[in-house]
Amino acid sequence: MTNRRLIPTILAVLLGVAFLAATLILSATMKTSITAHTAGSVEGADAVITATGSTTIPIEAVRSISDASGITGVAPAISSTVRTSRNTGEMGVEAHITPALNHGTRLVSGRMPTAGGTGSTVAEAVVNPLMTDAGVKPGTTMTIIGAGRSSTPRTVRVVGVIAPGPRASLNSGNKQIYTDASTLMAALGVKGYDAVYVTGSGGQDAVVATVNASLSEAGVKPTTVTVRSADAERDWLTSQSLRGMGQLTGMMSAFAAIAIAVAAIVIVNTFTILVTQRTRALALARCVGATRAQVRRSVLVEALFTGLIGSLLGLAAGAGLAQLLVTLGGRSANIPMVAVITVTPVSLVLPIGIGTLVTVLAALPPARRATRVPPVAALSPLPAVEGRTASRLRLMVGGALVALGAASLILGSVAAERLAGSALLWGVAGGLVSFIGVLVLTVALIPQLSLWLGRLVGRVGGVPAELATENTQRNPHRAAATASALLVGVTLIVTMAVGAATAQASGNKAIDQQFPTDAVVTSDSGAVSDGLLTAVAGAGGVERAGLITSGKATMVPGGSASSGSASSAGGSGQQVEVQGYSQQALAAIRDTSRFAGLDDRHAVVEVPGLRNGEVVTLVNGQHRVQLTAVVSAEGSGRGSDAPSTVAITEGTMERLLPAAQGSQILVRYAQSADSAQVTSAITRAISTTPGASVIAVAETREQIQQVVTIMLGLVVGLLAISVLIALVGVGNTLGLSVVERTREIGLLRALGLTRRQVRAMFGQEAVLESLAAAILGVLLGGGYGIGGSYALLGGLGMDVVVSVPWAQLGAAAVIAIAAGWLASVIPGRHAARISPATALAGE
Questions:
Q1: Do the Cβ atoms of 15 and 245 come closer than 8 Å?
Q2: Pair 59, 358: CB distance under 8 Å
Q3: Please, are residues 662 and 683 in contact by the beta-carbon 8 Å criterion?
Q4: What is the pLDDT of residues 288-308, one digit of tens each?
Q5: Nearest-angstrom CA–CA distance, 573 and 552
Q6: What is the value of pTM for the model shown?
């Protein structure tokens, strides 16, 4: 017989199983898509040769393979990254050899290139559709520049647009340009290929043997190339592509486990309600001969069918969600996604099995409670249930778990650098153990917090608020069960919010330390003119642009150039690189901690062995200045073989090196400006100066911020499912409260409590317990987020900058409280409908 109170359990199981099923199905679908895509990259080939490390496959070796007996086709490939420069700015793109129109590659518009030219001849090229989004179309002329020292800029003209197949490029999410091999080799400064696809007769093993023999004859060392059969290459590419996906699947599976754990709390409460409702029915069954085993079996069988129904519905919902995500997100993925999801036996059996098993296990405590109902209960009215207080053993176990977990978390945070890779493991284990301890202690924490909060609001809430506060104390276990599900969701959301904000702030600091400015403009000649500074400062979106002048001087210890006394700086003098910073240059620096103390009487030095506060003299011929050394953090730990640099002000530089030339321009972008557009504006501004180039890091900072924002949004969205399940749990436990307190509510109604006050009593009880859970969750989540950040980022050697997103934390608390109140509406209405006469009569 189906009870309508089983609906919350079915819903909780449905949500948890749907999450798990969607994760498994998406994982299988992505694996299928990746496997199909990588298979296409070696389609038609029998063997694949790839260069190892930074080496290339020599042109002569490719010719030798092509001439070998049994070889019917050789298709070389180059895959690298170049900078493309044109009148609208620079950008980094993938560069490849022009592919043939096969293996999935097709012409979208224009035409394919003819043979490339040499020398001053302009070569022809094609691009992928993403390049057209960046403004590159057939007819566009641009220069491609490699990163190597021997690279030679080459000019190409775009003649067409192609949709590259997997043989041309496995990554469809980047901007790509394709030109002939000679042009690309010259631009990259190489004389060989990255990979060669070989076709022959006699099967893959025979072709591999022929290729190895040809490479040996050509003098190619086996350590510089890797030769695999097409099947082996396909398997290797698939395994490489799936490496990162395992981490994503693991993270999503962890959240699915959380959702199922929260669902288990709801299931326990639901079957507790059922047992309480059926006290008389179970007692009557005992009176007519039912054994305890039969009573237990009846509850567990009901749980089995409930879990099975919820799991089947969850599997269907998860498959539908996975298909929706594949349909909507497949177009933006870096690999072509298959149109229909892949369903494996594991993705079918595992969610159903876990959902059903968790439901049955969660129903065990209520089932045991059902066997303890005495037959005499059938002849008695339903008593009000008074909850037990927390036992001393429970408090001791919970306290020990909290202390042990906190110690592990602190160890992972404080000793992150010494523990290195294991710091995160210590931190995660500590957080998990301590949180389990907190859940054990909720039976004492939640009622106590609710009591304190109730005393604050009781003065303005009237009688319903006072009764609500008292109700939170009467059954501590029920209060803890009401708040636990919400506590899990709030704690996790706050942990991720604080961790993400701290990671973002720490990442920005690391970028600011390594690249203190948004962009640096330099010149191949080594000298930067005032005219170039004016051009950069006038570019759109530039907030500050300042010049750094450079030169060499002799640094001697003490206050006189003639002093020959030894010092910690060593010797009577040493050559140092001197850099003069203008006020505009200092204003362009985001992290100025390195230059703290720099003025006309102090110099910031990075000189091995020099102590902070020592007086030094900088000498350049007849020019000399006496300064007090301020040792920067970067210079304090430098070795004796590190280069020596001294930073001084622009005024001091004019006295020491009046003829010094500008070496670089530091640029800071306007706060609200788009980094890519500002970089393009600077590129256009310096395009008339031969040899001038810009290195921008502002876009890297924005990309890090976008990644963190996207990840945080994904995590919060996933954890919202656990909050939704928690809402069901709050409503469930309040429903149990209505059943257990039927006579009490009837008596209150008889004494004059109105229906509205009854509803208010339940609403305020839910708000008190939800507020207690929110406060505890915010405190725990904040601590876990900060501790986890130190364990993760500190283990990577980063300086941790704690950042607390107060607005997001407040929103999480408000949502939790609102969810608790919303969950009380239906139980409150049911309680308000209880008839005083009926309740007092024992119904």
A1: no
A2: no
A3: no
A4: 888 888 888 888 888 899 889
A5: 13
A6: 0.64
